[in-house]
Amino acid sequence: MSLMKLAALAIVLASVGISSAADSATVYPKFTPLGFAQYRLRYDAKQTVSNADTFINKSGDYTNLIGYYLGLKAELNEHVLFQAQIGNDYTATEQIDWFNSNHFKDKATATTKVDTTKSDAASTTVSGLSIPYFSLAYAKLHYTHFGVSAGFIPVKAHGTLDLMENSFRNNSGLYSDAGFNGWAVGTNNSLPGLCLEFPVITSGNFKFGFDVTSSIYRTRLDFVPSKAPDSSYKNNNGVINIINVPVSIGPVSICPQGVVVIDRWYNYKLKSNKGDNEYGAGLDLSLTAGKKVTLRGSYAYARNNNRSDADGAHIGKIADGMLPGIGIDVQIGPGKLSYDSKINVSHSD
Fold first, then answer.
1. Rounded distance, CA 152 to CA 187, Å?
2. How would you classify residue 204: left for phi > 0, otherwise alpha for psi between -120 and 50, otherwise beta?
3. Per-residue DSSP letter, 168
4. End-to-end CA distance of the chain
5. Which of 35, 73, 225, 229 has the greatest number of C-beta atoms within 10 Å?
6. What confidence score (pLDDT) does residue 140 get?
7. In the 8-state DSSP scheme, what is residue 237?
8. CB of 312 closer than 8 Å to CB of 267
9. pLDDT tens digits for range 192-246
10. 222-226 LR contacts (CB < 8 Å, sep 24+)
11. Ordered DSSP codes for 173-214
12. Which residues lie across from 42 on neighbouring strands?
């Protein structure tokens, strides 16, 4: 009788153990809803001063801003996931008022695009707050030492892309506003493209790897300028290439970032059949001090050349920029207090 009780007890314990193990394992498919909403009250105090330091004008602007997104991450198994995220310009947030933000205004909003096959002129897109768009929409396949993502993928700036976004915006080629409006503000940390990831070492507190992302900056289709010497004139797309090399050792993390935009500019040197490129390099560094404080630092340099005819005439500009910065994050309860300081240096001729 006692043996039967012991056997029954063993079966019960075994069942409990199996049930516990099953509960702790991840069950696929796994779906995670994502969401964010922010409403900001903002006041800007402005003062304009002449070259002679004579007071000209002073103003104060009160605005309300809104940012939001809704998304879903679907993990089909331990190697495959899909993620989509739709919302507005939630990083920078958007100004609101009745005449520009109400439902009827948004339904009538139009979008205008420039013919990019014949010009590098910037496209103009006008959208309302009630017309959301996808900031993320991608699939990812990942293993221990390899991963690939495709679609509207997450891409973060590690110094360099903050300068590049400023150059890309309005197709200016300049870096003068990168300290205030960086990559996150302009793109919500995303980019349509393809990314290959190679996590080389993941051992305890030490991690090392690299990833390569490629996208199209400008599509140019079958356009031959009247000055072209023959039909072999090239009209290559502008191609964005990004490489990150993240390394972390315990509380220290560093990520060098290099960016090259091949055939950045539409104007080619007609005799050499070569386009002008844009390139940049930089890194960011973070140090976690204790459980609540993180110190950050970054540096980036970028340059582009838009001098493009066969005789070297000054058709475009040569521009370069630097962006060093420091920052700190402090955990305060469920939130975080952040401070950043950057020096934006930009030059063109």
1. 11
2. left
3. H
4. 97
5. 73
6. 98
7. P
8. no
9. 999 999 999 988 899 999 999 999 998 877 666 555 555 556 677 889 999 999 9
10. 222/117, 223/117, 223/118, 225/270
11. ---TTTTTS-HHHHHSSEEEEEEEEEEEEEETTEEEEEEEEE
12. 63
- Provide the residue type at 56 as one letter: I
Tokens of 210: 């690299």
* Residue 207 and residue 248 in contact, taking contact as beta carbons nearer than 8 Å: yes
H or E stretch at 37 = strand 30-49
What mean pLDDT is predicted for residues 109-125? 45
| pLDDT of res. 218 | 87
Amino acid 121: pLDDT: 46
Residue 282: count other Cβ atoms within 10 Å of its Cβ. Answer: 25
How many angstroms separate the CA atoms of 30 and 62, rounded? 44
Q: Which helix (H) or strand (E) covers residue 12, if one does?
A: helix 2-24
Contact call for residues 237 and 275 (beta carbons, < 8 A): no
Print the SS3 string covering 95-151.
ECCHHHHCHHHHHCCCEECCCCCCCCCCCEECCCCCCCEEEEEEEEEECCCCEEEEE
Cis peptide before 199, with omega less than 30 degrees from 0?
A: no
The pair of three-digit structure tokens given for residue 59, joined into one six-digit string: 């103003």
